[in-house]
Amino acid sequence: MSTVRQVGDDLKALRAAVVGASGGIGSAVVAELAGRGARVLATGRDAVRLSALEASGATTLVLDVDDPQAPIGLTAAARERLGGLDALIVAVGAIGPIGPTRSVDPHGVLENLRRGPVVALGLVQACADLLDASPNASVTLFSGGGATDAFPRYTAYALEKTAIVRLVENLAAEEPRWRVNAVAPGFVATDIHDATLAAGADAVGDAYFAETQRRLDGEAVPASHAAELCAFLASDAAAGISGRLISAVWDPWREPAGQEALRSSRSFGRLRRIDGQWFAEAGG
Asked: Across the chain, where does the E strand assignment appear?
């Protein structure tokens, strides 16, 4: 089977900032980029976890995205430590309140939206000038299955992830010199699932609670899948791919045909109504 050209030496000139680097997926992204020669600024809340990333060659910065000054701190660090910015990767978010939509706390839902797409938007806005100055600018955000199908009892999470995708699509349409995409990492065993375990089967539903336990017990997706996709999207090999939601696990992004579909298809990797579908089926 043919594969895309490998992402490797083309990252040696890359200057990347990874926000949320002290998390399970963010730390994997840092390790992947640094391992391929990129200069990486890794930011997050947990100083201890960040310090472990310094062995990979990354420079680290304790940064809390809840701080209104975080975007300013990020851009200042990118200028000082990297000399600019080519790739912004934002791996932050939360599940938010869990339970039936008819009774979920609206304030908790609003907070989840703030900590997801609104925080990401502020970081992108702060980094816009740096990205404009790059010959190979990219922005990668994180979405997931909560955006592509109903996710009962996880309305806060589903709204956040759907909003991330539309933010990506808008930015891609408005900033043609940037590549802007969303990554769906699959079910990775990270701290985000603690909220599900804490909520319990009554709030979550027996089936999904049992599924979460089973996946955490050995069926989770390795974080390396998402990290490899982030490295690809930050590289020259991803030229022309923008405004897409890409599954690290299920989409054939490593294959030439999959890459071409991501560049040219009107529908693949996008959230949209497929016009005419009902009529085609009804007349068939």
From this structure: 15-19, 39-44, 59-62, 87-90, 138-142, 179-184, 244-247
